Amino acid sequence: MLQFLLRRILAVLPVLFVVSLVVFLILRLAPGDPAAVIAGNSATNEDIAKIQVQLGLDRSIPVQYGIWMGNVFQGDLGFSYYLNKPVTELIAQRVEPTLSLAFGTVILAILIAVPLGTLAAWRMGGWLDRLLSGFSVAGFSVPVFVIGYLLIYLFAIRLEWLPVQGYKSLSGPSAAGPWAWMRQLILPWMTLAMIYVALIARVTRASVSEALTEDYIRTARAKGITESAVLLRHALANAAVPIVTVVGIGIALLIGGVVVTETVYAIPGLGSLTVDAVLNRDFPVIQGLVLLFSVSYVLINLLVDLSYLVLDPRIRY
């Protein structure tokens, strides 16, 4: 087991290095000069050259990368020339709404998708199975922003049950309380969970249906074990590894969906900060956010790999 842990942890290190290198090079090799954007349209070549020196853009690419990585290891992701603040400070100000949206979506999706997929596998070919197939197609086909606007029209405009946009803080001096926080996020959670539910439910249905055909399921039924125990303790437990795997893979969908969902619902999180940074060509902010999202995705997949040790003891050997 210790060797498995060490292999997984050591495998992450070169991945993180490649991620940081790709993030750095994509922005450096992209067309456009950040110094010219900062200087404005009326700037002279001398003004642009001074700003390039201030930002370190006059140095070679390897030197720029070395300086940037050295600052990253010290917790410095750069300085936003558009918002006139350190990137780490901007991320700290925006991280709560994004974490609230992401974790709430994952919990909601798992609570809906796993029981739905399990029941669909138990009654394969029934009305619930056919309903799940149609829902999965719709969940993957309809864009996130379309789902968001439809939910806003139904629950916020027509029924007036929920607020349209905005965010209520859960902590800090402007905290509005748990109920106000949750009420503001119900529609964003529902919007973003649509795709996630479709993905997890389909994988759960396929994994559980395959497990129900195994010999140990027939043995358990022959012993007189109740059908619910067979379904939960035997079939679902042995199908847990692919389900957990797809939950980790779905984080990539979640990261992309957060950007769109925060824009639709005017949530001041990391997604909306990313959109603003792209529109204003604020390269340090874009670089820091993309690195943060990439590292988070890699670490989440590492945790998923390590969870296999708990879900399937055979992996330890």
Tell me the Rg in angstroms: 24 Å
Question: Which term fits the overall shape?
Answer: globular
Q: Extract low-pLDDT stretches.
A: none
Q: What's the overall average pLDDT, rounded?
A: 82
- Tell me the strand order in the biggest sheet: 1-2
* CATH architectural grouping of the largest domain: Orthogonal Bundle
User: What is the CATH H-level superfamily of the largest domain?
Assistant: MetI-like
The beta-strand count equals 2
Q: Please write the CATH class name of the largest domain.
A: Mainly Alpha
Summarize the biggest pleated sheet.
2 strands, antiparallel
CATH topology tier name of the largest domain: MetI-like fold
Span between N and C termini?
A: 7 Å
Strand content: under 5%
Structural class computed from helices and strand pairing: mainly alpha
Helix content class: over 70%
N-to-C series of helices and strands: HHHHEEHHHHHHHHH
Number of helices: 13
Number of domains: 2
Describe the 3D structure.
The chain has 13 helices and 2 strands. It has 317 residues and is mainly alpha-helical. It has 2 domains: 16-76, no CATH class; 94-316, MetI-like fold. The protein has a two-stranded antiparallel ribbon. A hairpin with a 4-residue loop joins strand 1 (79-80) and strand 2. Helix 5 packs across helix 11 (240-264) and helix 11 crosses helix 12 (270-279). The longest helix is centred in the N-terminal third of the chain and has 36 residues, at 87-122. It is globular.
